[in-house]
Amino acid sequence: MDTQYDDFRDMVRRLAADRIAPHAGDVDDKERFPEEGWAALREAEVAGLPYAGALGGGDGDLLSQVIAVEEVAAACGSTALVLLVNWAGTSTVVSHGSDELKAEIVPRVAAGDAGAAWCMTEPTVGSDLSAIATTARPDGTDWRLTGQKRFISNAPWADWYAVLARSGGTQDFGVFMVHRDDPGVSFGPHEKKMGMRGSPTADVNFDGVRLPASRVVADPVQGYRYINGELNTSRALIAAQALGVAQGAFDAAVAYTCERHQFGQPLSRFQMLRGMVADMAVKIESARALLYDAVGLIMDGNPRARGRISMAKLLCSDNAMSVTTDAVQLHGGYGYVRDYPVERMMRDAKITQIYEGTNQIQRLLVAKSVYEGR
User: Fold this and answer.
1) What confidence tens digit (pLDDT) does each residue in 293-308 have?
2) Residues in domain Acyl-CoA dehydrogenase/oxidase C-terminal (predicted)?
3) What is the CATH classification number for the domain harbouring 343?
4) Which residues constitute the domain of residue 90?
């Protein structure tokens, strides 16, 4: 890896250790927004990493984004989720939006002064996006948006919501940019979650929300294609988040087994525990290698990227669940109490197997890529 990436990783790692990790337990315990972590990311200009310099961003490529998410997640999964959802919520605008729409939304998000989210999941729609019931109907030169979105990360904190809605026939969908203050927008109660408790999550409701035509991302019937085109990137970021959580739990477990003594010697001297640590290390490094390979394919525009990133999302999240579970085991009874971070990390890891396409869906996508390759 280039020195520039190494230097960037070191910077984010120090930032996470000094400014984010000390507050992660409190954020989880109180289920509050990670204000300290977000402030640190804003000050370091990490919030604007993927955006063009002309829009106030840092011109960071996908690999730098993956590294940032990985290092932040090793300290606090919730803070990493707020960050990557901001990027996902603006990705369609950046890729396909008009210059006017980009200028309206991106600079404040890049500066960390505004938040973003994307709205796809509905009460009866998860993996099957084609079944979306939220509708957008023309109203003169404007549009009227009606429907309900569920499990929306960054809601109601975010200012901007990229909403996938049915805009015509059975295959016609558009992406509509909705502001939190638009009349007709409301939010459900805060979801009480198993993990990622510092990431705000709620329903977003649209009751005949009127939107000007300028708030539609490009072609109002091509939104499904636009969103599908962003899934490679968003899955890479979720895989990086899972990988970071696994790394954080692994580092904590290694430190604990070096310090904790039983039978007159540190736990790190016991052969069975060493075997567990070795397996955890292999799972982390193999997942990282696959993720970085997939990221390289995405950045090169290689058509094999879609299958490969599904493999990476699958492996990173499954391995994160395994590694964090073993980290709890290596802590013994202390792993089961909130005084140590590994129980939080185990809870955080679980959702990475579910969102951004469940791992069952990822397996179907991997198999599809295998057969298409033949």
Assistant:
1) 999 999 999 999 999 9
2) 222-370
3) 1.20.140.10
4) 3-110
